[in-house]
Amino acid sequence: MLHDKTVMWLRRYVDRVVLLTVGAVPYSSDPRLKITFQYPNNWQLQISPVQREDEGQYMCQVSTHPPRVLAINVTVLGRPM
Protein backbone atom coordinates (compact mmCIF):
# COMPACT_ATOMS: atom_id res chain seq x y z
CA MET A 1 0.00 0.00 0.00
CA LEU A 2 1.18 3.50 -0.79
CA HIS A 3 -0.71 5.21 2.05
CA ASP A 4 0.93 8.63 2.42
CA LYS A 5 3.62 8.16 -0.23
CA THR A 6 3.93 10.42 -3.27
CA VAL A 7 4.08 8.88 -6.74
CA MET A 8 5.99 10.68 -9.49
CA TRP A 9 6.25 9.91 -13.20
CA LEU A 10 9.41 10.94 -15.05
CA ARG A 11 10.73 10.65 -18.60
CA ARG A 12 14.39 9.82 -19.21
CA TYR A 13 16.11 11.31 -22.24
CA VAL A 14 19.75 10.78 -23.23
CA ASP A 15 20.89 14.00 -21.56
CA ARG A 16 18.23 14.69 -18.90
CA VAL A 17 15.30 13.46 -16.83
CA VAL A 18 12.01 15.36 -17.05
CA LEU A 19 9.40 15.41 -14.28
CA LEU A 20 5.94 14.66 -15.72
CA THR A 21 3.70 14.39 -12.66
CA VAL A 22 3.77 14.53 -8.86
CA GLY A 23 0.75 12.77 -7.42
CA ALA A 24 -2.19 13.89 -9.53
CA VAL A 25 -0.53 17.20 -10.44
CA PRO A 26 0.87 17.46 -13.99
CA TYR A 27 4.25 19.15 -14.45
CA SER A 28 4.25 18.78 -18.22
CA SER A 29 2.61 21.23 -20.60
CA ASP A 30 1.80 18.33 -22.94
CA PRO A 31 -2.02 18.03 -22.96
CA ARG A 32 -1.76 14.40 -24.15
CA LEU A 33 -0.51 13.29 -20.74
CA LYS A 34 -3.03 12.23 -18.13
CA ILE A 35 -2.50 10.70 -14.70
CA THR A 36 -5.16 8.45 -13.20
CA PHE A 37 -5.43 6.84 -9.79
CA GLN A 38 -7.43 3.78 -8.86
CA TYR A 39 -7.67 2.96 -5.16
CA PRO A 40 -5.71 1.63 -3.34
CA ASN A 41 -2.39 2.05 -5.18
CA ASN A 42 -2.74 2.01 -8.97
CA TRP A 43 -1.25 5.14 -10.60
CA GLN A 44 -1.30 5.19 -14.41
CA LEU A 45 0.32 7.56 -16.85
CA GLN A 46 -1.69 7.73 -20.07
CA ILE A 47 -0.49 9.28 -23.35
CA SER A 48 -3.17 9.88 -25.97
CA PRO A 49 -2.82 10.08 -28.83
CA VAL A 50 0.56 8.39 -28.68
CA GLN A 51 3.26 9.48 -31.13
CA ARG A 52 6.51 7.90 -32.30
CA GLU A 53 8.44 10.54 -30.27
CA ASP A 54 6.88 9.11 -27.09
CA GLU A 55 9.13 6.06 -27.32
CA GLY A 56 11.69 5.80 -24.58
CA GLN A 57 12.13 5.18 -20.90
CA TYR A 58 9.58 6.31 -18.33
CA MET A 59 10.01 5.95 -14.59
CA CYS A 60 7.50 5.63 -11.79
CA GLN A 61 9.04 6.72 -8.49
CA VAL A 62 7.52 6.29 -5.02
CA SER A 63 8.72 8.54 -2.21
CA THR A 64 9.93 5.82 0.14
CA HIS A 65 13.35 5.84 1.84
CA PRO A 66 15.22 4.98 -0.30
CA PRO A 67 12.95 5.84 -3.24
CA ARG A 68 11.48 2.93 -5.20
CA VAL A 69 11.77 3.34 -8.95
CA LEU A 70 10.27 1.23 -11.71
CA ALA A 71 11.62 1.90 -15.21
CA ILE A 72 9.40 1.15 -18.19
CA ASN A 73 10.62 1.10 -21.79
CA VAL A 74 7.86 2.22 -24.16
CA THR A 75 7.88 1.17 -27.81
CA VAL A 76 5.32 2.70 -30.17
CA LEU A 77 4.05 0.31 -32.83
CA GLY A 78 2.01 1.11 -35.91
CA ARG A 79 2.04 3.68 -38.65
CA PRO A 80 2.13 7.42 -38.02
CA MET A 81 -1.23 9.14 -38.39
Tell me the fraction of residues in β-strands, as a range.
over 45%
Uncertain residue segments: none
Mean pLDDT: 92
- Taken together, the total number of domains comes to 1
CATH architectural category: Sandwich
Helix and strand composition category: mainly beta
Number of strands: 7
Short description:
The chain has strands at 7-12, 17-22, 25-26, 33-38, 42-47, 56-62, 68-74.
Can you put this structure into words, describing what you see?
The chain is mainly beta. It has one domain: Immunoglobulins (Immunoglobulin-like), CATH 2.60.40. 0% of the residues lie in helices and 49% in strands. The chain has no helices and seven strands. The strands form two sheets. It has a five-stranded antiparallel beta sheet with strand order 3-2-1-6-7, with no helix packed on it. It has a two-stranded antiparallel ribbon with strand order 4-5. The radius of gyration is 13 Å and the shape is globular. The mean pLDDT is 92.
